[in-house]
Amino acid sequence: MQVNEKETISQFVARRNASKELFTAGPAALLSENLHGLMPCFGRGDESYLKLESQVLFDLCQLSGHQKIARFQSSGSGAMEIMITNFAYGKVLVIDTGYYAQRAQEMAEYACDNYGFIASIDSANWTDIDNISGNYDWIIACYTETSIGLKLNIEKLTELKIKLGAKLMLDATASIGLEQGHNLADVISYSSCKGLFGLTGAGFVAFNNPPSNEIRSFSLNIINHLDKKMTGPYHAICSISKVLENYKDFQVAVKNTKDDFCERYKENLVFKLDQQPLLCTQVSISLGAKSTKSVLYQPRTIAPGKSVVCHLGEVHLGTQANGLINEQLIKL
Question: For FRET with 187, which of 2, 71, 258, 325 sits at 20 to 30 Å CA-CA?
Fold first, then answer.
């Protein structure tokens, strides 16, 4: 597809979005705001960029309810590993919701073996939250587990951390901006390209109290990122800056698309309504697409005969999104 140099940015973005229908977990459909925010920039001595970054990071802290934030070039998984490595210590409990929670456990096991701050790691299935007992220093959980289209109850996680005398860390990659209550966690990690609707490439860890672990790895040490000792995710942050100005409109787009999908497939929903994340939905049928330009989400671990569909494909339509994209799905 050739670039038409006479097109406006809005026309270019509309044409690009018309060429592909995304039912995937992120990045979302391309936004004009993503491109409007881009500019030449550098992380030292560039006052206009530093002002923009400061505002974006302030807005993100306001969004999650945390006082401090580190930004770096990364994926959501990279952000999660930096969070676990720097903050987790002592006795750790992982709430197993599926693929991404199990990835968090692998990261915790690596940190335990190589850094020594974690003494032991237990795992409990998310369905057993009410029955967990004992004492722990940290609980690790995925607020929204995209691999199965599940949202955990943040109030129950908070009750659990109080019961166990623990602190709570969340992989918020699939929940940030879309779900409430992130402030109830002591530390969270996420990326730029899902619920923030930005371009890929930025990872974030938000927290209130600084970590106690001293990590010798240059890239995994969160203090090095706070001190900006390496190139940051400048353009990913720029891509978020304009999005945040009209952020509620894009949140509405996700909700409208999700609501339409759930109405269409209400007989096939796997989880109850209070377990439904805005980002995605699991259904008890196999879904395909009418067109080859549709890109379906392919969870790494999904039971045969089931599907997970994500709802970021109409984000660019803002409040005008109505779930029309869901008409491209078909039952197999």
Answer: 258
